[in-house]
Amino acid sequence: MKRHPLLTFLLYAAVVLLALSIVLPIAWLFIMSISQPTDLTTLPLKWFPETINLDQYKRLLTLEEGSTGETFLYALRNSTVVAVSATLISVLAAIPAAYSFSRFPGRQGLLYGTLAVYMMPPVAFVLPLYLTFSHLGLLNSSWALIIVYCTMLLPFATWLLKNNFDLLPYEIEQAAIIDGASQLQVIWHIALPLIKPALGAALLFALLMAWDEFFYALIYTNDLRAKTLPVAIGDFAAGRATDYGLISAVGMLAALPPLVAALFLQRSLVSGLAAGGTKG
Amino acid sequence: MSSALQQRRTAWVLLVPMLGIMAAVTAWPLLRTVWLSFTDTGMGIGDSGGQWVGLENFARALSDADFRTGFGRTLYFTLVSVGLELLIGILVALLLNQKFRGRFLMRALLVLPWALPTIVNAMMWRLIYNPEYGSLNALLTQLGILSEYRSWLGDPETAMNMVILADVWKNYPIIALIALAALQTVPTELYEAARLDGANAWHRFWHITLPSIAGPLIVALVLRTIEAFRVFDIIYVMTRGGPADSTRTVSFYVYQESFSYLHAGTGAAYAIAVVGFSSLLIGAYIFLLRRQNGASR
């Protein structure tokens, strides 16, 4: 069916407006990050910088004591360590749990129970955990965050993987058990390879969630040793610093890994979202 | 053949790692939060211990006009931002469900705000709203919409709505993507039949489109409501609860009570109030999820 030309025009106009509303804020963040500091504080505002200035990025990528670069690079390291460790632990524990929920029904209450806990606001747990970590001397260490993040990633990963195990036929696994394979061998060699895409999605989602977390990180960490990127960015943005270009560059660098990951996630995005992976 | 008993044992053994972690790091702390809320425990050095004070903390929380205002503010944030996200999300999904060039690119673009870390989003909008050099002021004055620069986040009248705008920009794409995925499962024959029966566009939307995307949308909606109700990050970075407390939500309140004023007891009581309300929403979410999962098999 042919569309009326006026409708076509309106359609494309709406699409262009939508595209601009998404791209412009991010583009502006990028422009700020490559502008001269003086260009950002002149009135009327210059939309395009006269010269491209990569100083901000250079400053962030040099490790010098007491510099912004040092804060940034340490935070980058801490964020990576925390996100990767929490993701690996969570997914490793989620695989057998998801398999159990899928193949041996009868414990659905537990499954929904862990999901309910996962949805609870962090204020429910933050105080006692703070007291415990302080007793154990784990405050201001990556361990505290790794442990806490597992409780966010585990229920989510379990749910996502369970839904994918559900789609596999059980017969092959049963036959393997009869042939003498152990339960773990069956999971590892038969079931898991068949849900590789879902496993990849679970890993990426978990990484994104851990990378994004702010509340616990703000409370449980306080210096270079353990502060993660969101906390460091919070400090930069909320401080009195007026170096807008530098703040923007930090934002661009912190946003880069999740933006790249999201491109890979395109396909499994909706199924992941349905499993509760919308992030805060 | 393994017996039923053996199967049950296997099922539990496989669950042990997950259940162990969850019990230690969530169930037990939650119980302790409940316990703390009945004591006058402090967080400062030297005031460990803490005496049983019964319901005193709850009495204080309930009679605290500031906390009640904060609760109302949180509800406002939740209702307005989730409402707008739903509205814009559906409209955008309907738009992207049309045939046009660059559809694929548009879908990819829609993922960008979702993937942007929450803190980076908050920081980005804080810079855009900047009262002296922000691009929003520049844009609106250059277009002639605004005669002079405004302090968007410095004015108690506008601060909350500006935070909501930043939140909606980041979160409506999720709703749009879920709605779009649901839209694509609606068989086109239904529309053809309805058109032949003389149904207009509105009728087709109301009687065919909406019912078929309602299931996934409601789940997404409840999920977003739960998340919006615990809002903290974006407020911490954009306004720190100010100006004049106009953006101080309940999570922020608990945070300050516990970690700025160091009152663990009352902080826990506030937390329990938040948990109670969230539980209602979580209950609704689990109910919907069970029903949807049961229906799909």
Q: How would the blueprint of this fold be written?
A:
The complex is a heterodimer of chains A (280) and B (297).
Chain A: H1 5-33, H2 37-40, H3 55-60, H4 68-103, H5 108-119, H6 126-136, H7 142-165, H8 171-178, H9 183-194, H10 196-212, H11 215-220, H12 229-238, H13 244-265, H14 269-274
Chain B: H1 4-36, H2 56-63, H3 65-96, H4 103-115, H5 118-128, H6 135-142, H7 159-183, H8 188-196, H9 201-229, H10 233-238, H11 250-259, H12 264-295
Number of helices of chain B: 12
Indicate the low-confidence ranges of chain B by residue numbers: none
Q: What Rg of chain A, in angstroms, do the CA atoms define? A: 23 Å
The structural class of chain B is mainly alpha
Q: Tell me the β content of chain A.
A: under 5%
- Strand tally of chain A is 0
Instruction: List segments of chain A where confidence is low: pLDDT < 50 over at least 5 consecutive residues.
Output: none
Give a verbal description of the structure.
The complex is a heterodimer of chains A (280) and B (297). Chain A is an all-alpha fold. Chain A has one domain (76-274): MetI-like fold (Orthogonal Bundle), CATH 1.10.3720.10. Helices cover 72% and strands 0% of the residues of chain A. The mean pLDDT of chain A is 86. Chain B contains 12 helices and no strands. With 297 residues, chain B is an all-alpha fold. Chain B has helices at 4-36, 56-63, 65-96, 103-115, 118-128, 135-142, 159-183, 188-196, 201-229, 233-238, 250-259, 264-295. Chain B has a single domain, classed as MetI-like fold. Chain B is 73% helix and 0% strand. In chain B, helix 5 packs across helix 7. The longest helix of chain B is centred in the N-terminal third of the chain and has 33 residues, at 4-36. The interface between A and B is large, with 99 and 102 residues.
